[in-house]
Design brief:
FAD/NAD(P)-binding domain, Arc Repressor Mutant, subunit A, D-Amino Acid Oxidase, Chain A, domain 2, 31% helix, 13 helices, alpha+beta, 5-stranded antiparallel beta sheet, 22% strand
């Protein structure tokens, strides 16, 4: 089938582009090699909407960050995604860092960012009683949200508005002829007039398939720890240290997550593997030590999980320079829209990036509004967040809402069924977890995992996997194994 636009990469930015383009009468295809959206950096980050305080003024990053963050409240409201403004503190712990705070305030003001203020130690303590520091730059524009929920919501809304989504589809060849791109994949061939490269850490490799050389992505791993909800009130805002030049990140920081946990991290470590999602004891120990400098009363006994995301950097290891976003139609390959180096604040900039890509495509395709476009995705209120009266009414109307599958997160059988029956067709333990939070609580699935597996077996004939092909959780039933042993005599 021929398409007007093919987008490769179904993270937040890729799905935001797909949704933005679905506002017009264009035939759009969104591809991803994973079994579900949000499997890459979009589902492995702190869920922060940055105001642009720590981005160099005048850069494309700053421009798109500021424009995107201003649109985020409406963006999340339309898609039914929880969003809460909490502000950010960049904390100085030594006198030598005070000059850096003052310069950061000046740079942010040059970018047009308001609501900035330098807090002295008493003001800092009043705002964050448990935080250690002598001063802080306060920025009120930062907010928190659920990045994986936004990713799923964008994909669902794009699909609702006519975007074709093909998961488990990896591009192996790209042929450019007759003003069209022909993509050869493991699931067949597709052709389109425009090709949008939003493939994250693989973006340079996809560009090479189209004959575009000279780019290189340097994967940089960031590890985080997740703290139990019991200690959620230890911080009210995002808390960052004064950044160290050339560190590759913003420093180990503390973030209150939208669902009640506290996130600690991320680290910044250049690696060779583009999908090496291991968490490592030395890095996690370092996160703990650095977090204690900001929050001395932190206790590692209340860490419940660790996870890793990989930034797609254009800066080589050891570089102390700034690397901007690269978003352009390639001059030598007409119709190829390249997006490289979209690391933080890429999520914050997503609405504005999508609009920029639309403008690039509109130079070659007729821009005709889709009269059936619907920007609204109905919010999905979790059972755990209902009042007691509403919980009782829901259980009375639907007995499946009265059966608790995940005790830590208070997730019902009805919610797990809805997650399994998602419109994108993803069937895995991970797909369920990211849609209803079953398995994300204190016991990390110790109680609910067997129940989720049983329910997956009830609702799908596919093999049970943790996160898609190659992550099989079982080798067969006990009866089958006993038969095998009886035949071999072992």
């Amino acid at each position: 089938m021929d398409y007007d636009v093919i987008i490769v990469g179904a993270g937040v930015v890729g799905c935001a582009i797909a949704r933005e383009l679905s506002r017009y009468r264009w035939n759009i295809l969104l591809l991803d090699k994973e079994h579900d959206v949000t499997r890459g950096a979009s589902g492995r980050n702190s869920g922060v909407v940055h105001s642009g305080v720590q981005v160099p003024p005048g850069s494309l990053k700053a421009t798109l960050n500021i424009a995107g963050s201003k649109q985020f409240p409406k963006f999340c409201r339309e898609l039914g995604v929880p969003y809460r403004r909490v502000g950010k503190l960049i904390v100085a712990q030594h006198k030598r860092e005070l000059a850096t705070l003052a310069q950061m305030e000046k740079d942010a003001e040059k970018s047009g960012i308001a609501d900035l203020k330098i807090l002295d130690k008493p003001q800092l303590k009043q705002r964050e009683p448990y935080i250690n520091g002598i001063a802080a730059l306060s920025s009120q524009g930062e907010a928190i949200f659920s990045p994986y929920t936004l990713n799923i919501a964008l994909a669902e809304n794009a699909q609702l508005n006519g975007v074709h989504i093909k998961l488990n589809t990896q591009v192996s060849e790209i042929d450019r002829s007759k003003n069209k791109f022909k993509l050869i994949t493991n699931n067949g061939a597709y052709s389109g007039r425009y090709l949008v490269n939003r493939s994250g850490v693989w973006a340079d490799k996809l560009a090479e398939l189209a004959g575009i050389s000279g780019y290189r992505i340097y994967p940089c791993r960031g590890e985080d720890w997740v703290r139990d909800k019991e200690w959620a009130k230890m911080i009210n805002s995002m808390v960052y240290p004064v950044p160290v030049a050339g560190s590759g990140g913003l420093g180990i920081h503390l973030t209150p997550a939208i669902d009640g946990n506290i996130l600690i991290g991320p680290s910044a470590e250049y690696i060779n593997g583009r999908e090496d999602y291991r968490t490592t004891r030395p890095i996690l120990n370092r996160l703990y030590r650095e977090a204690r400098q900001l929050l001395p009363s932190i206790d590692r006994r209340y860490f419940i999980a660790g996870y890793t995301g990989i930034r797609s950097k254009l800066c080589r290891p050891g570089s102390t320079g700034f690397s901007d976003f690269l978003i352009q139609e390639e001059p030598k390959v007409k119709g190829f829209i390249n997006l490289l180096g979209i690391e933080s604040p890429g999520l914050s900039a997503a609405p504005a990036i999508a609009q920029l890509v639309r403008k690039l495509i509109a130079k070659g395709l007729k821009l005709e509004t889709n009269p059936d476009f619907n920007p609204i995705r109905k919010p999905k209120t979790s059972f755990n967040n209902l009042s007691i009266a509403k919980k009782a009414a829901q259980i009375k109307a639907d007995p499946l809402s009265g059966e608790m599958v995940c005790r830590c997160e208070q997730v019902t059988r009805r919610e797990v069924v809805a997650a399994i029956q998602n419109t994108l067709g993803a069937k895995s333990v991970s797909a369920v977890k990211y849609r209803c939070r079953a398995g994300m609580g204190r016991c990390q699935g110790g109680y609910c995992l067997p129940r989720i597996v049983d329910m997956l077996q009830e609702h799908t004939t596919e093999e049970i996997t943790l996160h898609g092909p190659g992550s099989h959780m079982f080798i067969g039933s006990t009866k089958e194994l006993l038969k095998c042993y009886s035949k071999t005599g072992n």
